[in-house]
Amino acid sequence: MTIIAPPDCRSTGIRRRLRGRRTARRAMCGAAVMPPVRGRGALALACAGLFAVLTGCAAKPENERQIGSGGSLVRYSSSQTEVDLTDSEQQTLRMLTDRRYAGATQAHTLDAVAGVLRAQGYAPVTVDRDAGLIEGGRSDTLIPKWRQLLRGALKARIGGLPAKADHERVAAVVTVRASGAHDAIVRARFDRTVWNSNGDSRMKTVVEPAYYQAFFGDMDKAMCTTSCER
Length: 230
What we know:
Number of domains: 1
Number of strands: 9
Distance between the termini: 131 Å
Helix content: 40-55%
Shape: elongated
Structural class: alpha+beta
Radius of gyration: 35 Å
Order of helices and strands: HHHEEHEHEEHEEEHE
Strand content: 25-35%
Largest sheet: 9 strands, mixed
Number of helices: 7
């Protein structure tokens, strides 16, 4: 007499299917319990990376020259950019920079220029009498101190903040040359360098009339005991 055994898990393959289901269930549970990346720092880092990629891909204007690069995805240094004047800005600048002082000697005019720059906050002021050149610099903060501290705290806390203009330095370059027997011609140029909160700098020659009007206005007061000509 032949006895037929009832089917078990091994003969029907049920055990193999159950084992496969348990393995799949464990894999799904492991993925579900894996902690996601949390925290504002991670989000800020991701946003900063995306912002760096987008800004790095943007084309720079033709009149901008970057003489230093701080990196795109990972910042490893600050960047320095020099901006050349356009043709229209150069034309505007030519109408602002020169002033003729009749009846003035070069030596007297050099002293007057140095005095005006010091009075306007430029320091130090250097005078090269042989070259007829006067140079000076003036630094200014563009945002209050409390805002700098607040921004620094937020940047350290969450990171990824966009850069903002922080402080600037204006360099004055003035030349004086004799014209004729008793005339002096003064030519002034102001170059502004602005730094942002990331330490990046941007330099461009000032073309705003107010800078030149303020300088030559004080020069007129110092020099114009006789007639002045533009």
